[in-house]
Write a sequence for this structure.
């Protein structure tokens, strides 16, 4: 074999190997998706429980970008996620109506709770979130707001508005522009009130003197939904793989995985797909 023939043969082998590696890389890439979700689903520990079960069932990895719901939806609008898993139904329905998402599926729910110092200096304890916020404002009690356009922040602003206090929340009101865990840490350190989702609260370890003071109000209901990002807007979106996640999480297997996630025997989320 001449030197030229050997060179051509080696070049051919290298090209074939490069093609195989490119195909393998593409296949590997196809078996992963990006999910823009809320800090509550991440910091509650749900995804650490849920996503390994999904990968076992489908072979698909999920990389979670945990943000406030508003930021998660904005990430998807830019085409930087394949699927969103969030909890602000009005914003989710707008996202779909504007053509950014294919369809919204309800997945699960829990509730919001008002957390505060056990001594309850503003005297808010009970089951009426609107009355509690009025007491906090009147007392100028310290209150930590997420202030991050998250689903929790959106709910909090609705409650202030219902209390007639959208522009008068008291001098103790402070927005941190942060996730649920950091907001709870700030409340624990300063003896402040804070609205939280129950899932993150149950998984929160640094409670100091904090306790649940307001719960049970029907307005505190907290629904989560999942949406595949529209590939017509962003052709690179892995819609088929994202749909596999949606189909799994609303299936009996996915719903059972959600129901089985508990801390201290207490469920953090309640599956309600298709209801």
């Amino acid at each position: 074999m001449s030197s030229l023939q050997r060179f051509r043969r080696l070049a051919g082998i290298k090209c074939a190997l490069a093609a195989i590696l490119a195909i393998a890389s593409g296949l590997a890439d196809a078996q992963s998706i990006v999910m823009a979700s809320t800090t509550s689903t991440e910091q509650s520990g749900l995804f650490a429980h849920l996503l390994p079960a999904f990968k076992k069932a489908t072979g698909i990895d999920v990389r979670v970008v945990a943000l406030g719901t508003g930021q998660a939806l904005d990430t998807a609008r830019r085409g930087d996620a394949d699927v969103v898993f969030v909890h602000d139904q009005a914003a989710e329905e707008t996202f779909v109506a504007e053509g950014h998402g294919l369809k919204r599926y309800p997945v699960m729910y829990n509730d919001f709770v008002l957390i505060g110092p056990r001594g309850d200096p503003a005297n808010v304890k009970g089951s009426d979130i609107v009355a509690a916020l009025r007491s906090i404002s009147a007392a100028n009690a310290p209150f930590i707001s997420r202030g991050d356009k998250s689903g929790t922040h959106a709910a909090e602003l609705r409650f202030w508005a219902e209390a007639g206090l959208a522009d008068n929340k008291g001098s103790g009101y402070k927005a941190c522009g942060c996730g649920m865990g950091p907001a709870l840490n700030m409340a624990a350190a300063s003896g402040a009130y804070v609205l939280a989702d129950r899932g993150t609260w149950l998984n929160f370890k640094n409670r100091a003197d904090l306790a649940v003071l307001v719960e049970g109000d029907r307005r505190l209901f907290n629904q989560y939904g999942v949406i595949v990002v529209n590939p017509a807007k962003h052709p690179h979106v892995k819609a088929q793989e994202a749909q596999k996640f949606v189909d799994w999480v609303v299936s009996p297997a996915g719903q059972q995985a959600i129901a089985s996630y508990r801390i201290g025997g207490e469920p953090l989320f309640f599956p309600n797909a298709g209801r």
Remarks:
- The first helix runs from residue 3 to 30.
- Confidence is low (pLDDT under 50) at residues 11-29.
- The chain is about 45% helix and 25% strand.
